[in-house]
Amino acid sequence: MRASLIQIAVDEGESIESRRQRAAALVREQAGADLVVLPELWTTGAFAYERFDREAEPLDGPTYETMAKAASDAGVWLHAGSIPERAASEGGSAADGTLYNTSLLFSPSGELVAVYRKIHRFGFDKGEAVLMGRGRELVTVRLPGTTLGVATCYDLRFPELFRGLVDAGAEVLVIPAGWPARRRKHWTLLAQARAVENQAFVLACGTAGTHAGVPQAGHSIVVDPWGEVLAEAGPGEEVLTVDVDPAKVADTREQFPALKDRVLGLEPPRR
Ligand SMILES: NC(=O)CCC(=O)C(=O)O
After folding, report:
1. Which GO MF terms does the UniProt record name (predicted)?
2. What is the pTM of this model?
3. What pLDDT score was predicted for residue 96?
4. Crossing angle for the helix pair 159-167 and 184-198, nearest 10 degrees?
5. 183-197 average pLDDT score
6. To test ligand 1's pocket by mutation, which of 40, 122, 128 has the most ligand atoms within 8 angstroms of CB?
7. What is the pLDDT of residue 165?
8. Is the pLDDT of residue 237 over 70?
């Protein structure tokens, strides 16, 4: 399976529409790949909190339209990264005002096959953590020959989420992010840790550039189920293309069956 991670630069000098068209062109250039991945909140920037409400889109808004077409033009499975989503109210099309950090996944015919709302929101008592709602559902996506498990940026710090994805059959963990440069070591370390402990591929796609005064780490990374780094981007805008063999997941899990030794339901300590 050939995967292309589009580490797009998110800088304030560029309009959202220009970046959307540029992202679509980059997706089209990946025709021949099987899976293409864009990062987290690449329209606004993950740290541009004041833009979330202003630039929020319905699920079927302009990014959906543009990315559905780009996926079908290129004939690729597309994880289109995430958008600030303004959720529709239960009963109809009117927006209810709730924002989510929502990832969109498309099939090679441009059909929306999965939606993932980020579960762990970043910012502690400000930013995304207070401006956006919490997703509640794990999401896996069946591709020919493998199963993707999806997570977003800060989720990377929460191993139990990934165990849930593995229990649901995930073999390739896809993680769009807008990770800051000052915590780049955590990014690389956590990506490798999630790959080793889950004996799964990790495809982690970050942004480049600087927005809201936060320089981005870049350094998108692809790690195999043994923890080896197959490819790593530099800090700038770049497309990282790598061939991954999903059969390696079953091989690794068979040869070193640590996942079978999990002990669940441990007793809490007695005081
Ligand atoms: N957008 C994010 O989730 C940022 C996460 C982050 O900066 C960190 O975990 O560190």
Report:
1. hydrolase activity
2. 0.97
3. 60
4. 30
5. 98
6. 122
7. 98
8. yes
Q: Tell me how crowded residue 262 is: count the other CB atoms within 10 A of its CB.
A: 9
Structure tokens at 125: 């008592």
Class of domain 2-88+97-257: alpha beta
Residues with a CB atom less than 6 Å from ligand 1: 40, 46, 122, 153-154, 157, 178-180, 183, 186
Question: Residue 90: what pLDDT?
Answer: 62
pLDDT at 91: 58
DSSP 89-151: PTTSSSEEEEEEEEEEEE-TTS-EEEEEE-SS-SSTTSTHHHHSPPP----EEEETTEEEEE-
* Alpha carbon separation from 3 to 16, 19, 46, 82, 231 (Å, rounded): 25, 21, 23, 18, 11
Average pLDDT, whole number, for the chain?
96
List active site positions: 40, 118, 153
| Burial of 45: CB neighbours in 10 Å, binned 0-12, 13-18, 19+ | buried
For the chain, the structural domain boundaries read 2-88+97-257
User: What is the whole-number distance in angstroms between the Cα of residue 123 and the centre of ligand 1?
Assistant: 8
| The residue type at 145 | G
Q: How far is the C-alpha of 158 from the C-alpha of 227, rounded, in Å?
A: 18
